[in-house]
Amino acid sequence: MDNLKIKEKKTKRIFIPSSLLFFAFPLLSAILLGVCFNPKTPFSLGWISLIPLLASADLYQQDPWKRMGCGYLFGIFFFSLSFWWIGLVTVAGTALLIAYLALYPALWLLALSRPLVNFSSPSSSPSNMLNALAVANLWIILEWVRSWLFSGFSWNALAASAYKNITLIQICSLGGVFFLSWLIAFTNGLLYFSIRALLKHDASQLPYFPKMEAATLTLLFGLCFFYGAHRLNNLPGEKALKLRYAAIQPNIPQDLNIPVDPEEAFLEEIRLSRQSLSFKPDLVCWPESPFGLDFFSSPNLLEPIRKLQAVHPFSFLSGSFKATSNELFNVAVLFKYPGEDPEVYAKNRLVPFGEFIPLAHVFPFLRKLVPFQIDLSAGREPTLFSLENPRLKIAPLICFEDTIASYVRKMTAQKPDLMIDLTNDGWFKDSPGAFLHMINALFRTVELDIPLLRCTNTGVSVWIDQRGRITNILTQNGAKAVDCKGILLGEAYWHHPVETPYQKFGDWIILLAFISLVFRFFIKENKEQNQLQATSLKPSSKT
Description:
With 543 residues, the protein is α/β, with parallel strands linked by helices. It has helices spanning 2-34, 51-59, 64-83, 91-101, 103-111, 125-148, 172-200, 211-233, 262-276, 303-311, 405-412, 433-448, 501-505, 508-537; strands at residues 241-249, 283-285, 315-323, 328-335, 343-346, 385-388, 391-398, 418-423, 452-456, 462-464, 470-473, 486-494.
């Protein structure tokens, strides 16, 4: 009887820590990854952020539902830390978005099982390497799906956590953000399985040190830093392209409960534009329309701009709406000089739960979860704009399109000299939203060797060069970039964009990851079947 009591006590002691770890591991991973996106954090913790989550997969290797639950909890914690500010517009929509995004890490953790990942395999360098490869391959495939499904929402991918390291992010020119995400996930996996091997190593045997793992990481990082330093210090050709620009940041409040006076907002943008003329800009930009501006249904709105162009000739690029008989488009429009037809680009990639409701025709109740009841129509194809003085080709982007790598790559296949994003982040007030938008967009310049000018309603208006460096930013009192009013003035010089491996081959790392997983799956399955057959054919001891 006493022995039974002792056994019950031991079981209870084991059960309590296991229950706590079910929540603690995902929470720790979410915090480690979440703080990477805080500009005050001096370095990236993304390189170790997945280790606690991998410990969850190890702890529950025999229980797929608990593994999936840990992954879902991580997703809820991380995406809540990352995207709480969307709740300033719609709480219900934000909850729905977070619940959807959390499915991706849940599926990742669910897939970390045999034959792809074997936590019960003997501790050895080859086994650790193969497990880490599977961990990284599964992660980036799910990131890739997230980037395009339901119009795509790829913000805060694993790669974005390393945005502070300008040298390292240069590898995105080779394989895009997914290549950098793969490197970070692989590092997490290899560190975890190496630490696990050290802890589980039998003390009676020779001391174990993960030499192959350490050598692999040293070689990978050495090559990445060498490539990054070479790319930063060796720019191709002369800085033959130039532009004097004025990006207007009007800081017009966005609040569903406080209506904006369109006339007053329009006059504020005109006033700021007039001030910019003393700089003699080649291009004046207004952001994505923060007050329902429509140059097409009200062409008289263009008259004040034409008067300014008469004082000093400049091209004018602005966000607008454009309505047809049965569709409404969010557009960018370029007005050059009087008498010339405007160039128009309709936004191709709409914001899910913001500009359209995915599956609303199947689940009508979804419309009640967001404050916007009108679905916008998506543009049909990417379009380039052309300036004549100076002679430049511009790739116009609207809102979060600059965060979608595959779409921007498709647009820049037409060989633009410059990308310009017009956005309105004013809905998110003085929150991290505008800053996160900017750092997710920053990677496009590295991937494609094309600079980016961002003109926003309320931060962050910047010029980002072809290596992902912020060379000009609009701030207030030397620090505040969000929720401030002003004009970003600059004269930029840059070299002709050079086609990068990413521009040429796209997301080749995804195809490679998929092939690797399929190969590992069938090889492992065949090996285990052969072992089973060998065991069944082996004669018994009695025989």
